[in-house]
Write a structure and sequence with these properties.
The protein is α/β, with parallel strands linked by helices and 404 residues long. The chain is built from 17 helices and 8 strands. Strands 3-2-4-1-5-6-7-8 form an 8-stranded mixed β-sheet, sandwiched between helices. It is 59% helix and 9% strand. Bound molecules: guanosine-5'-triphosphate. Pfam families: SRP54, SRP54_N. Keywords: Cell membrane, Cytoplasm, GTP-binding, Hydrolase, Membrane, Nucleotide-binding, Receptor.
Length: 404
Amino acid sequence: MGFFKKLKEKFVKEDELNQEHPEKKDEEEHSEEPQDQSEEEIHDKEEEDVPASVIEEEYTEEVTESPVEEEEAVQQTQEEQAFEEGEKESISTKFKKGLAKTRNSFATKVNDLVARYRTVDEDFFEELEEILISADVGVNTVMDLIDELKMEVKRRNIKDTREVREVISEKLVDIYYGDDDEEIEEITFNQDGLTVLLFVGVNGVGKTTTIGKMAHRLKQQGKNVVMAAGDTFRAGAIEQLEVWGERVGVPVVRHSEGSDPAAVIYDGIQSAKSKGADVLLCDTAGRLQNKVNLMNELSKVKRVIEREIPGAPHESLLVLDATTGQNALSQAKTFSEATNVSGIVLTKLDGTAKGGIVMAIRNELDIPVKFVGLGEKVTDLQSFDAHAFVYGLFADMLEESEQE
Ligand SMILES: Nc1nc2c(ncn2[C@@H]2O[C@H](COP(=O)(O)OP(=O)(O)OP(=O)(O)O)[C@@H](O)[C@H]2O)c(=O)[nH]1
């Protein structure tokens, strides 16, 4: 079976099923809910399930709102609606939406190329190389990809350039997984107790937002989560995490600004242990200006974590902003020299037309992209799936290939 056909079978069907039976997804999600909910939690959940408009009616009866309050209430309802919609979207829809910018730019260029060159030759590959480089796939990765493509085109005796599009998608997935055989684990959980996830990255990349989204994601999976506000350096970082804590209903352990991050994380561990929590999410400061300081701070934090829980942190996730392109790649290099990075969270993939950066990071640094940010909604943090990524890139071509 052709690769496009396989993707179509997997994702287009999933989408259709989701549109026809949205309630099926609801059922699946409800089945994931923890069994040992307290009465209070169940009550909260019941309220959550009531349509936002009903909750509003119930609480706003007989209250006269000022225009500002009204505006806030409308905004809140919109947020709740967006949240509900986000929860119901399939992975393929999320990738398709999140990669719209990259797809529009990349697919337009590839289609244009295919229209101009009907037969595959050296000039065709040269132009394809430029298109891939302009999508931030990374020079070395592009070279590898083009070599693979040439070999495959020869092996399959492909003459028509339209067929090359399918081979590109197939090879992108191959390059992503490499020798890992599609077995990259999202998160390594500690089977014997508290799992500690450490988040590192430069300020402004969306680290706090990612931790908030992750807390929500884990809660939806039935995990009991605590967050530790270890970024004591950036003004407002602690409060920002607290806002997320309130929003997703997760406690935040904090000290005051300027205090020792290792002490905050230590308290976070004690608090998480005493609550019998499953996962502790640790924020850290991201001062790249001084690599020695960064290294010292991160290794102190790690030492504390390891002393309290042998084998922890179970993941050190580096958060990178996809819109910074090749800069993200150099940040990844610096951080992986300073600390052991087990995976990458690539934020704002929806905000760039150069989504190929995922491939560059994976191939040039050999660190898996474990999660991607595909939008600003709390539900827009997705575990990375190279097939869904390629589907998001080629979705229009897939539909088009059906008509050909
Ligand atoms: N479109 C989009 N926006 C995102 C994504 N992730 C984060 N953002 C936005 O990026 C902005 C910065 O994120 P923050 O978490 O506030 O990052 P920061 O506080 O500046 O810095 P750090 O927390 O130190 O990284 C916010 O407006 C977020 O909503 C994403 O995946 N897509």
